[in-house]
Amino acid sequence: MSYTLKELADKIGASVHGDDTCLINSIATLLNAKAGQIAFLSNVKYRQQLSETKASAVIITEDCLADCHTNALVMANPYMGYALLAQLLDTTPRTANNVHPSAVVDASAIIGANVSIGANAVIESGVELAEGVSIGAGCFIGKQAKIGKQTSLWANVSIYHRVEIGENCLIQANTVIGSDGFGYANHQGNWLKIPQLGSVIVGNNVEIGASTTIDRGALDDTIIHDGVILDNQIQIAHNVVIGENTAMAACSVIAGSTVIGKNCTIAGMVGINGHITVADGCVFTGFAMVTKNITESGVYSSGLPVQSNKEWQKTNARIRKLESTNKKIKALEKEISLLKGESSS
Q1: Least confidently predicted of 40-44, 94-98, 303-307
Q2: CATH topology of 3-88 equal to that of 104-300?
Q3: What is the mean pLDDT of residues 152-170?
Q4: pTM attached to this predicted model
Q5: Quick one: which pathway (predicted)?
Q6: Burial of 189 by CB count in 10 Å (0-12 exposed, 13-18 middle, 19+ buried)?
Q7: Is residue 26 within 8 Å of residue 7, measured between CB atoms?
Q8: Catalytic residue among 17, 69, 161, 238
Q9: Among 17, 36, 224, 319, which is least packed by CB within 10 angstroms?
Q10: What topology is assigned to 3-88 in CATH?
Q11: Which fold has domain 104-300?
Q12: pLDDT digit string (tens) for 30-51?
């Protein structure tokens, strides 16, 4: 489907510079765009491409107009404009269409209007799928699970028993929600399994990436609040609570019974210890290790940036000598203190 620039401008709150009847059918990068496509500039490092692009239009800020030789949609935040147009021009298919004959749906399941269930999906007893839910091929929805309106699951997602998922959520392929938390008691060297009796509650407008795992609670529930976005290959342990609109990037992990505040940003490969609390509005940069309560919002980092192997070996050698170096410093401080005492007398 094509839109005029005027139509697009109205939808994203931009102003048109150039031909407002120009037709746009898709989005591309500045470098690779062709006629009929729209591009955007949100990072100044790509500004030189603005004068070379073959896009029919670009989304830019006012101060970039001088470098623009084509039609433009001008707005304060071009990246937001790109996001809104990507939603409008999205060609991603539904995760399923209608109810496939090979799907296994228990007779007691409550299936709302316009629900789609893909091939070989299994819907167990007592499940409730609200209006417009889309279940991809090969999914498993366990007993008494509930899924809210317009939520979509891609292929091979597993939702365990009694899990509750809100409205307008998107769950990518191979994700597991409601698996057992890592609960064991040690008795004389043997591990005794503790059944995980809680569940997982996922709020509205939550997005969960591919191959992410969210464990059910041991007694209380694991809770993912409204607006949370989780990337691929994330581990959320039992009884974790994640506050509204927090974002978490790939391969990060949260250990059990930790509470993460609202509007936090957790970069990739971050490890967060169990039984701690993180305040609202915290940002953790990549590879950060969070081992204690964080009581104030702010940016937190740990870990060492990459070095050449030769530099790292030197750094590591110095680290191994820290204890002896510390003892020498304390001895010197003591000598200096004694000398100062003698001079003053």
Answers
A1: 303-307
A2: no
A3: 98
A4: 0.90
A5: Bacterial outer membrane biogenesis; LPS lipid A biosynthesis
A6: exposed
A7: no
A8: 238
A9: 319
A10: 3.40.1390
A11: UDP N-Acetylglucosamine Acyltransferase; domain 1 (2.160.10)
A12: 999 999 999 999 998 999 999 9
